Amino acid sequence: MSTVTRFLLNRTSEPRLQAPAPGKEVLEQAFQCAGRAPDHALLRPWRYLVLEGEALTQLGEAFAGACANNATEQELKKARNAPLRAPMIIVGIASPKQHPKVPEVEQILAAGSGMTLLSLALNDAGFGTMWRTGPVAYAQSVHSALGLDEAESIVGFLYTGSVIAEKPRVPRPENSEFVEYRQSLDR
Ligand SMILES: Cc1cc2nc3c(=O)[nH]c(=O)nc-3n(C[C@H](O)[C@H](O)[C@H](O)COP(=O)(O)O)c2cc1C
Predict the structure, then answer these.
(1) Is residue 103 part of a domain?
(2) InterPro entries, per this entry (predicted)?
(3) Across-strand partners of 88?
(4) 122 φψ region: left (φ > 0), alpha (ψ -120 to 50), beta (else)
(5) What region, left, alpha or beta, does residue 59 occupy, with left being phi > 0 and alpha being psi -120 to 50 degrees?
(6) How many domains does the chain have?
């Protein structure tokens, strides 16, 4: 088995993260990897925001602002503190372009593929990552706070840092649960 396959078989998301976050050199290399995502017509329909420090506190305010009007103090506090669970959050943004042959869904898939490659590259460099979304990813007020254009969407918040403690193993599905081998399409 190649080292790449072994690495893929062992990858996990890690929610318990602390400083230090990756430095510029590691990040730049990881973004080069993200830029290798499969991409129909080479539209590059993605961009990333790297948030640290005060930006995470401000993101927490945006998350709290996106809570329902009747949110309790506890819910607001949870939303405000959510981005502080990691020393860095990389916001993956899909930026679809008008194209006669490439529908928006394909461009969002390309941006999602980029997030996966970014995450794997950071893991390979020794950092933990956790891809999160939730209602805040779809809230207009959060989009405005992050400066998204109208056509853009949030692919995910990649919580990034050094792993405090690995999470318990996630049960992995058997291939037979999601793969079918067919020699014919007859049923
Ligand atoms: C688009 C997307 C959004 C996600 N949003 C969340 C989330 O908001 N909260 C969460 O706990 N996990 C979320 N996950 C799942 C985790 O990132 C992770 O994959 C899951 O906990 C399983 O762990 P594993 O990656 O180690 O298998 C999301 C995954 C994807 C692809």
Answers:
(1) yes
(2) NAD(P)H_nitroreductase (IPR052530), Nitroreductase (IPR029479), Nitroreductase-like (IPR000415), YdjA-like (IPR026021)
(3) 52, 160
(4) alpha
(5) alpha
(6) 1
Residue 24: exposure state from Cβ atoms within 10 A (0-12, 13-18, ≥19):
exposed
In a domain, 80, yes or no: yes
- Ligand 1 in contact with 170 (CB < 6 A)? yes
Ligand 1: which residue has its CA nearest to atom 11? 132
At residue 68 the predicted structure's pLDDT band, cuts being 50, 70 and 90, is: confident
Establish if 146 belongs to a structural domain. yes
The verdict on whether residue 5 carries a ligand-binding annotation is: no
Ligand 1 atom showing the smallest separation from residue 13 Cα: 26
Query: Where in 10-121 does DSSP place strands (E)?
Result: 17-18, 46-52, 88-94
Residue ranges making up the domain that contains 69: 14-164
Minimum CA distance residue for ligand 1 atom 12: 132
Q: Which atom of ligand 1 is nearest to the CA of 131?
A: 17
Give the Å distance between the CA of 183 and the centre of ligand 1.
Answer: 34
Judge whether 54 lies within some domain. yes
Q: Is 12 annotated as a binding residue?
A: yes
Residue-wise pLDDT tens digits, 114-172: 999 999 999 999 999 999 999 999 999 999 999 999 999 999 999 999 999 999 999 99
Ligand 1: which residue has its CA nearest to atom 6? Answer: 132
Q: Tell the residue nearest (CA) to atom 29 of ligand 1.
A: 131
Residue 113 Cβ inside 6 Å of ligand 1? The answer reads no
